[in-house]
Design goal:
By secondary structure, the protein is of the alpha/beta class. Helices cover 41% and strands 20% of the residues. Helix 3 (82-89) packs across helix 7 (184-209). The longest helix is centred in the C-terminal third of the chain and has 26 residues, at 184-209.
């Protein structure tokens, strides 16, 4: 059976979607890890000997366009794609994505990316996943949700809390919070915001995939 492949960087992004989809037989979810290197290794392994009907590369994105609020679902699809029509019908907005090598942690950094790239949002995996899909002539779309708007600083610089493989080190996180306990409230606020964003993304994805029955 030809399958649909939906990728996310981390389980916090994929969880609400998996809760809503259950055990659809033609659907596979791939959690790639954070960053371009992890995404490339994971998607190449997943596609080895397989050719899905299409690939959706999903998750959070940082806002660069100040007109886009947190919780907005945005997408970029192949030209003349049925997926694009379905995504528009589901309420997603077309956007230009920039695939970055690091987390854009401050509003100032986001402004710089907006000026240098003209992109509406920034992410860290979809660009390389889409490139590999194009190599293999597999249809694909990027579908993400804005976790933090253009004017928002993240409570911590998450780049400093990762190891060389771009895995979040919880020991570093605990130490950072011990040094700056005033940021705990902002971190919990971000957690609530990202959870709501992941649920919004899941609803859009389920709506879209309903138009592609097994």
């Amino acid at each position: 059976m030809a399958f649909l492949l939906v990728t996310f960087a981390v389980k916090e992004e994929s969880g609400p979607f998996q809760n809503l989809t259950g055990s659809r037989p033609d659907l596979r979810v791939l959690v790639t890890g954070i960053g371009q290197r992890n995404a490339e290794a994971s998607i190449r392994q997943a596609l080895e000997g397989h050719s899905p009907r299409f690939v959706l590369t999903c998750g959070f994105a940082g806002g660069l366009n100040p007109k886009l609020a947190a919780g907005t679902v945005i997408f970029s699809a192949d030209e003349n794609s049925t997926l694009a029509t379905c995504l528009l019908a589901a309420g997603a907005k077309p956007a230009k994505f920039h695939c970055a090598a690091r987390v854009a942690a401050t509003a100032q950094e986001k402004r710089g990316l907006r000026q240098s790239t003209g992109a509406d949002v920034v992410e860290m995996e979809s660009g390389v996943i889409r490139a590999i899909c194009r190599e293999r002539k597999i249809r694909s779309s990027t579908v993400r949700v804005i976790s933090d708007a253009a004017n928002e600083d993240l409570p911590l610089d998450f780049n400093r809390l990762m190891d060389g493989g771009q895995n979040l080190r919880y020991g570093k996180l605990a130490l950072a919070l011990a040094k700056s306990p005033g940021k705990i409230g902002a971190l919990f606020k971000l957690r609530r915001q990202t959870r709501a964003a992941a649920e919004k993304l899941a609803q859009v994805l389920v709506n879209v995939l309903a138009r592609f029955p097994p």
